[in-house]
Amino acid sequence: MIRTFGEKPPPPTFMERLSAGLSRSAANLGGNITGIFAKKKLDAETLEQLEEALIRADLGAATAAQLAAAVGKGRYDKEISEDEIRTVLAEEIANILRPVEHPLSIDGSARPFVILVAGVNGTGKTTTIGKLAKFLADEGRKVVLAAGDTFRAAAIEQLQIWGDRTGAEVVARNAGADAAGLAFDAIERARATGADVVLIDTAGRLQNKAGLMAELEKIVRVIKKLDPAAPHAALLVLDATTGQNAISQVEAFKATIPLTGLVMTKLDGTAKGGILVALAAKFGLPIHFIGVGEAAEDLQPFQAQTFARALIGASR
């Protein structure tokens, strides 16, 4: 496309932002692939090296073995190009990810549709809620935000800023207030104002803190008094930079709340993007959104093929 002098270039597409964000992961894995397959035939040694490279890229041992076996099928003792390896790996990874590629579905018959959002400290949970509010508002939905991270005054303020940006009403109390009671009030407020969706923030908690996890269970119990089917969705926000620790987080939260889906943030600038593949293979939970930056548009619905290509650095 020809641009006139002084015309600004078009903003990067999400695929371009994702590829840039996953560049460290792709360089880490791609560099190993280049070293393994340079002028070599595909044999037991190269497949073992590939499997080790995939494990180091945080894809997990079981997934790495599955992918190495898929690469070797029908290609044993043959010369194979680096591009072919990347293409095969991208397609096999996409096959693992496709079953968990699920957009967040809002059931219009549940009004308000209650979404509980959980995660450990530092995952970008409150920011993610703000971005989800914008995403839903852009779809024409009326949103209420519940500032349930009552342990942090900054989280309450942060959610109020997102409420101003997105036109969402924010239900908040002073820091230290009862989070379960606040969630209850937010749902009642949503009912009174005819809101479509309630997004409930919760205090960031380590998965090994029994008292804080018990509070999360309490929030679920209390909102079920208003609607036995609530929460209609319970999302766990994960930070890609934590790597394999994300697995223990999913296990702990899954045992505490009726977890229905995942959101992966901070994929930009990490060499551990492969953890998303390991999570998909192990848990099979829907992956609704991935985030590659601070801007609202940097949180996008998850697409298996796009992610797999960016992770491997495949051209097609």
Concise description?
The chain is α/β, with parallel strands linked by helices and 316 residues long. It has helices at residues 14-21, 23-37, 44-56, 61-72, 82-97, 125-138, 153-166, 179-193, 210-226, 245-256, 275-283, 304-312; strands spanning 113-118, 143-146, 169-171, 197-200, 233-239, 261-265, 287-291, 299-301.
Alpha-carbon distance between the two ends: 21 Å
Number of strands: 8
Large-scale geometry? elongated
Helix content: 40-55%
Mean pLDDT: 88
Which spans have pLDDT < 50 for at least 5 consecutive residues?
A: none
Strand content: 5-15%
Largest sheet: 8 strands, mixed
Which keywords apply here?
Four Helix Bundle (Hemerythrin (Met), subunit A); Rossmann fold; 8-stranded mixed β-sheet; 49% helix
